[in-house]
Design a protein that fits this description.
Blueprint (H helix, E strand, L loop, with lengths): L7 H30 L25 E5 L14 E5 L2 E8 L5 E2 L1 E3 L5 E4 L8 E9 L5 E8 L5 E3 L1 E5 L6 E2 L5 E5 L6 H6 L1 E5 L5 E7 L2 E6 L7 E7 L5 E3 L2 E3 L3 E7 L3 E6 L4 E6 L2 E9 L13 E4 L2 E3 L2 E4 L12 E4 L2 E3 L6 E4 L17 E3 L1 H10 L5 E5 L18 H4 L8
Parallel strand pairs: 9-18, 11-19, 20-30, 28-29
Antiparallel strand pairs: 1-2, 2-6, 3-4, 3-7, 5-6, 7-8, 10-12, 12-15, 13-16, 14-15, 16-19, 17-18, 20-21, 21-22, 22-29, 23-30, 24-27, 25-26, 27-28
Keywords: Acyltransferase, Cell shape, Cell wall biogenesis/degradation, Peptidoglycan synthesis, Transferase
GO biological process, one term: regulation of cell shape
Protein name: L,D-TPase catalytic domain-containing protein
Length: 413
């Protein structure tokens, strides 16, 4: 039989044979797919049950925060820079100002916080760089800010002594003058430091709101350097007022020169480091008036001149008691007109009588010797009169007991 003569039954048989493998294949395939996507409860890979595998969340990196905030302007110079870290520890913090100057600071015990020490410089840019480490890896942050420009700038306009290479006496005070009235004396005084090579107790005393003086409790130990520093930069000295510049100077304290004048015996004895180096016959104030009475107490040598013209205070030519004298080798010891000076016209009275207008006068050769050997701040102690030197007359600061002196300090308890 040819191909075209196939019967109807035969055709059905052929179709049945072709369908049967396809159906079986579909069933088998479905079974395999079902088996690959399911399993027994608790078996590996199911994501459920006590044996399931879990993925922990990642450990966060350290977070660093900086104050003042990034881009801040008009930051008060008396504020601290504070850097903190969470999720880790601070490894490094650098705060750098203009000119590359690095600001000092301290970490806390856990190294999670850093705080700057000391004030910031006014009207300046600062850059802060911080690095922290932790389980989540390292982190680095950089920030910057600008400090405000003060409405009023506080500066030191004069310090005495401040002559380069000058040697001063053991009584020399340190006198500081400011350009502005100081509102917060305590804050400013805390910025003033005196350091010595030999231990010294001392204190500042405010004379007024622009003038402050340092004096030790006892005379400076001889033969040493004394350094004065004023860390004023950024110190808040009053409303809208900040220090804008630091200051430092060093003075050399020389030998212990102490001259003792006795107006009753008309003598002056000069000692250097405790040894007598000169005895002088002198004449002191004649004491007919208070004005002509030499002041009693501890004086300091202040300045010198040769010649110096001396005119009676408060009098004009023709008035009773008026005088105008030109003297050589004059060393000032007060602001009320007292000097140690040469007086050739009263040599006959020197050592025997008091005939001056209040000065200590001496023989020309001895007055010249004193003039040539004195230093600012040397001690001249005068005894024998009934007129006391006022503590604020010239450099009469040693007239105040130290307990009373330090009551003028803003830091005195």
């Amino acid at each position: 039989m040819g191909f075209g003569a196939v019967g109807e039954r035969s055709v059905r048989d052929i179709r049945q044979r072709l369908r049967t493998p396809i159906a079986v294949l579909a069933v088998v395939t479905a079974g395999l797919l079902t088996a690959s996507c399911s399993g027994a409860p608790g078996s590996p890979g199911t994501g459920t049950g006590p044996g399931a595998e879990t993925t922990a969340p990642p450990t966060p990196a350290p977070i660093i925060k900086i104050s003042p905030a990034k881009g801040a302007s008009k930051v008060r110079p008396d504020k601290n820079v504070v850097v903190t870290a969470s999720n880790g520890e601070l490894e490094e913090v650098t705060v750098q100002g203009e000119g590359g100057k690095v600001l000092e600071g301290e970490f806390d015990a856990d190294h999670t916080k850093w705080v700057s020490k000391g004030p910031l410089k006014p009207a300046s840019d600062y850059t802060v760089s911080a690095k922290a480490t932790g389980d989540g890896g390292p982190a680095t942050v950089t920030s910057s800010f600008t400090t405000l420009k003060p409405a009023q700038e506080l500066r030191i306009i004069d310090v005495t002594p401040n002559v380069k290479g000058e040697t001063v006496g053991i009584g020399m005070p340190i006198m500081v003058r400011f350009n502005q009235p100081v509102g917060d004396r305590k804050a400013v005084e805390e910025a003033l430091q005196v350091t010595t090579q030999k231990p010294v107790e001392g204190a500042w005393r405010w004379i007024d709101n622009k003038y402050v003086i340092y004096r030790p409790a006892k005379y400076w130990p001889a033969h040493q350097k004394v350094r004065f520093t004023a860390a004023l930069e950024g110190v808040r000295a009053g409303k809208d007022m900040y220090g804008v510049k630091n200051y430092a100077t060093t003075m050399q304290v020389g030998a212990a020169w102490i001259s003792t004048v006795n107006t009753r015996t008309h003598t002056m004895v000069v000692r250097k480091d405790g040894k007598i180096v000169q005895r002088m016959a002198i004449s002191a104030g004649k004491a007919t008036t208070r004005e002509y009475t030499t002041t009693n107490g501890i004086h300091l040598t202040m300045e010198r001149g040769s010649p110096v013209t001396m005119i009676s205070p408060g009098k004009k030519e023709g008035d009773p008691g008026y005088y105008k004298e030109v003297v050589d080798h004059a060393v000032r010891i007060s602001n009320s007109g007292e000097y140690v000076h040469s007086a050739p016209w009263s040599v006959g009275s020197q050592g025997r009588a008091n005939v001056s207008h209040g000065c200590i006068n001496a023989r020309p050769d001895q007055a010249k010797w004193f003039y040539e050997n004195f230093h600012r701040g040397d001690v001249v102690k005068i005894v024998g009169t009934n007129r006391a030197l006022e503590w604020n007359n010239g450099w009469g600061f040693w007239q105040l007991p130290f307990k009373q002196w330090k009551k003028g300090s803003a830091l005195d308890a």
